[in-house]
Design brief:
Two copies of one chain form a homodimer.
Chain A: H1 11-20, H2 27-38, E1 43-44, H3 45-52, H4 62-74, E2 78-81, E3 89-92, E4 100-104, E5 110-113, H5 120-130, E6 133-144
Parallel strand pairs in A: 4-6
Antiparallel strand pairs in A: 1-3, 2-3, 4-5
Helix pairs in contact in A: 2-3, 3-4
Chain A binds a DNA duplex through helix 4.
Chain lengths: 149, 149
DNA sequence: GTAATTGCAAATACTTTGCCACGTA
DNA sequence: TACGTGGCAAAGTATTTGCAATTAC
């Protein structure tokens, strides 16, 4: 997909991708990108909206955030994360990185874990066995964190 | 948790668990249980409602299904499955079984896969490394199935 | 008989869309 | 200037709750 360099994602490189797609770079969009990059964890649209608003000139409407994230999702620049909550959460989706999460059932804290992906092999085997192609996966661990009773 | 026998889940054994919790067994609830057991895949509340209604005497209101599933979720008798759709899907959660899914991005078909769980070990390592306890996980594979273009 | 369960309807929450004014390139 | 973008408000969809009537035990 896309015409992307092999460099890791940064606000700048993602901005460049958007520009190449013919999209316009506005204050709101800059704010939204900053918000996504600053946060180390998946964010709801609400969270993205308010975080974005702390950046110069940015005060995106909720609908604006919604449409921007929709756009970025289509371009595989962000992806949705399943936190078992009542609304959707998103995070930057660097194609070179791997995103599995550890979520506290009690306080809701979310940790991005970096394990050597126990899934890669299974993915290939499953593709063969079930005749599916173009596989990806979503893996979340749920538990109770050290600071919760 | 609970005072459960080691036998696999059946409508009867789950009914027994509910009874022990002091809950009353009604036609609606029987219908909902039947629906969950008959279906081999995760169901939305809508689907559960209409499937339940095909059982003798059962015509549960949507709210009734909602409350019943909520209850069963608390008792760990069902769990939510992340199908990346706009509403929640649930399935029976037999503690002796393992639930990972393979979902077609194109036609939406859902397959319950039974692989030797590549996660079990990782789960223990993660528990140690991050100080979490009582770990469980949610794993879904997404791809395009053999019959889709 | 008593307390749990249910249907109905209303409230809430999140998501999605239409439209026109506005700003970027 | 031209067209993508953004705010506002309304519509759509799923979830959740209150309450009185009903039912299991």
């Amino acid at each position: 997909m896309m015409n992307r360099t092999e460099a890791a994602f940064t606000p700048e490189s993602v901005t460049e991708i958007l520009r190449r797609e013919g999209l316009r770079i506005t204050c709101n969009r800059r704010g939204i990108l900053q918000a996504l990059f600053k946060s180390g964890r998946p964010m709801s649209l609400q969270e993205i909206q308010s975080a974005a608003s702390s950046h110069e000139g940015a005060h995106p409407d909720y609908a604006t955030v919604f449409r921007m994230i929709l756009l970025m999702e289509k371009l595989h620049l962000v992806h949705k994360v399943n936190l078992q909550r009542s609304c959707s959460y998103y995070e930057i989706s660097d194609p070179r990185k791997h995103y599995d999460h550890l979520i506290c059932r009690s306080c809701g804290s979310v940790v991005l874990i970096d394990i050597p992906c126990p899934i890669g092999d299974a993915e290939k085997r499953i593709a063969q066995q079930y005749g599916f192609r173009d596989l990806s996966h979503s893996l979340e661990f749920f538990g109770v964190c050290a600071t919760c009773p």
